[in-house]
UniProtKB/TrEMBL annotation:
SMART domains: HTH_LUXR. The keyword Transcription applies. SUPFAM superfamilies: C-terminal effector domain of the bipartite response regulators, PYP-like sensor domain (PAS domain). The keyword Transcription applies. GO terms for molecular function: DNA binding. It comes from the Bacteria. Gene3D superfamilies: PAS domain, Winged helix-like DNA-binding domain superfamily/Winged helix DNA-binding domain. InterPro entries: PAS, PAS-like_dom_sf, Sig_transdc_resp-reg_C-effctor, Tscrpt_reg_LuxR_C, WH-like_DNA-bd_sf. It comes from Thalassovita litoralis. This is PAS domain S-box-containing protein. Residues 114-179 form the HTH luxR-type domain. GO terms for biological process: regulation of DNA-templated transcription. Keywords: DNA-binding, Transcription, Transcription regulation.
Length: 180
């Protein structure tokens, strides 16, 4: 086995190769994170590991736009293990085919579940939480999600309650897994 193959297989971060958003290969850490053996993930659509099909479509559209601009994409999102358990995951990817961004790419995934437990959120609350962590104001989030400022504020109020936070800075710290 070549050194580059060994490095990929034994990297201390989850790695996978995607071809048209289908897993063409992964390493041991990816298999551990998602709950299986490396062979279990061969030719499996990456959509199976999103919290919902709505997330798969929305995040995919956002990623495609960003990859077309820069060749790379990254975020933190809730994903699903093979067992169905939801967990927070840091995802970073790079297209190897800039002319067709999803044709082939390499993606890294880190399990954030120890620092950031999953709180049951609606898909809209999850979107608002992610955009809040990116530092967007309620007005900016409203524009991005085509919601009114007041609706975004209601979602943020529910997030504060669900996470037991008193103010926005505390909520962002809890969402991002930062120590308080």
């Amino acid at each position: 086995m070549k050194l580059s193959d060994l490095a990929f297989e034994h990297a201390p971060i989850g790695l996978c190769m995607l071809e048209n958003r289908i897993i063409s290969g992964c390493n041991q850490e990816f298999a551990r994170i998602f709950g299986g053996q490396m062979a279990d993930f061969q030719n499996v659509p990456f959509a199976h590991f999103y919290a919902s099909m709505e997330d798969y479509e929305k995040i995919g559209a956002r990623a495609l736009t960003q990859i077309r601009k820069t060749g790379r994409y990254g975020d933190e999102r809730v994903m699903r293990r093979r067992s169905g358990e939801l967990f927070w995951c840091r995802v970073r990817g790079q297209s190897l085919t800039p002319e067709d961004p999803f044709r082939r790419g390499i993606w890294s995934l880190s399990d954030l579940s120890e620092e950031r437990p999953v709180v049951e959120l609606t898909p809209r609350e999850r979107e608002v939480a992610i955009l809040t962590c990116r530092g967007m104001t309620s007005k900016e989030i409203g524009k991005e999600l085509e919601l009114s400022f007041r609706t975004v504020e209601l979602h943020r109020a529910r997030l504060l309650e669900k996470f037991g936070a008193r103010k926005l800075a505390e909520l962002v710290a809890k969402l991002s897994g930062m120590p308080l």
